Amino acid sequence: MTSHLPDGSTLQLGTATAAYQIEGASTEDGRGPSVWDTFAARPGATRDGRDGSVACDSYHRYAEDLDLVAGLGAGSWYRFSIAWPRIIPAGTGAVETRGLDYYDRLVDAALARGVRPTATLYHWDLPQALEDRDGWLNRDTAEAFADYAMVVHERLGDRVKVWATHNEPWCAAYLGYSAGIHAPGRREGDAGNRAAHHLNLGHGLAAARLHEAGVTDLGIVHNLAPFWPETPEAEQAAAELDAVRNRIWTGPLAHGAYDDELLRVAPVLADPTLVRDGDLALVKGSADWIGVNYYTPFRPTPADPDVPVHTEIEAYPGVSPISFVVREPRTDIGWETDASGLEAILVQTHERTGLPIIVSENGAACVDDTFVDGPDGRPMVDDQDRIDYLRDHIAATEAARKAGADVRAYFVWTLLDNFEWAEGYTKTFGIVHIDPEDLTRTPKASYHWLVEHIGSTGS
Ligand code: PNW
């Protein structure tokens, strides 16, 4: 079998985006509503009250965006996601050809520029019609996901060779169904655990069918994170968090099972009406690579009334009450910066799965209010703090490779300042600035830094 993954001789670099965060055009060409359209319309759901209906308007400006990706260097990778409600607007049933046509144009435009596309099938924009039937709490959603995956593959599979099923199903499950801070905004105790199982199942069902259709490089993208206890008293909680955040995904992939500690923390995962015979066997060995999205380490500490309980913890009814220490420095979104956490999670993921790894997202929200003259004389964001973050994390990725982790590629989150979910447009992760009025794209200093870095390392 030919593999289309980077071969690992050097670390390949690229950038990543997600459909709802950049496309806009949310009612165009027959796109159905998604849970994020519905959720973002609720008062208070996003920090600035805004949604993704216009976003970066990449639905119309994708050619310009791909010029920017191509400008990063020869053969650079572009990770994008496909909006399920553009393809099957009601979640199941009728296929919208105009939605497929859009991704067809996008992929052709990428290839024409020498950009290597990798597609993620699900980055949280569930068709609202499926949420109306209980979304990821309904096992049928997993089946519907596999059907949708096949429709997309049938159209794009001749040109897209590296695929991912889900992006960060942890967020979709726990932030969506237990913490209520992401769509669909439900706060229903351990619903997150049940949604998580159906996301695992959806991945497994889609993987079986995609492999049968000839896909050789199918992955899944997780936001795995290191949990570093601050004190010996927090060790138990750290292990429990590692179970619900990390091992709930890597266990089924590597062993076809949820481990005993996870089952203690999330007993519903032992319920045979939820986890049916054969579900986890389907997931075992189903990934050809694993994506790791990394931003920050977590430092659990015994519950302290003066340290706010992180939203994380509200998502896990079964985990011992704890707080998190967040050290300096922090990015603009409040997440601690520590590149050694990336090296640690890559080595741990290698040990747990043995799979080729892609750092499928890493980047920093920065204040972005310092301007200098750009190469064309126009003002350019001087985001030295983002450059420092990226340099240190790329170095940590190289360190993980030296330590034996099979890391093939590193994708910066993200190409464009975009709709940052519950934060609206208030937090910017882009290496390209977007003018809020007319959506003009202006590369930041970090973009130019990345061009030079890719040029000098030949990756
Ligand atoms: C990830 N949290 O999202 C996503 O994959 C991207 O779409 C996103 O833009 C990026 O990271 C930066 O946030 C997350 O609250 C959003 O724990 C929120 C959380 C985690 C991940």
UniProtKB/TrEMBL annotation:
Q: Which family does it belong to?
A: Belongs to the glycosyl hydrolase 1 family.
Which UniProt keyword terms apply here? Carbohydrate metabolism, Cellulose degradation, Glycosidase, Hydrolase, Polysaccharide degradation
Quote the protein name from its UniProt record. Answer: Beta-glucosidase
Q: Catalytic site residues?
A: E168, E361
Q: What is the lineage of its organism?
A: Bacteria, Bacillati, Actinomycetota, Actinomycetes, Propionibacteriales
One record GO biological process: cellulose catabolic process
Q: Where is the signal peptide?
A: none
Classification via Gene3D superfamilies: Glycosidases
Question: Is Cell membrane one of the keywords UniProt gives this record?
Answer: no
GO MF entries: beta-glucosidase activity
NCBIfam families hit by this protein: BGL
Its EC number is 3.2.1.21
What reaction is this protein's catalytic activity? Hydrolysis of terminal, non-reducing beta-D-glucosyl residues with release of beta-D-glucose
Q: Which GO terms describe its cellular component?
A: cytosol
- In terms of domain of life, where is this protein from? Bacteria
Q: What InterPro entries would the database entry show?
A: GH, Glyco_hydro_1, Glyco_hydro_1_AS, Glyco_hydro_1_beta-glucosidase
Q: Where does substrate bind?
A: Q21, H123, N167, Y295, W413, E420, W421
Q: Which organism is it from?
A: Nocardioides agri
Q: Which Pfam families match?
A: Glyco_hydro_1
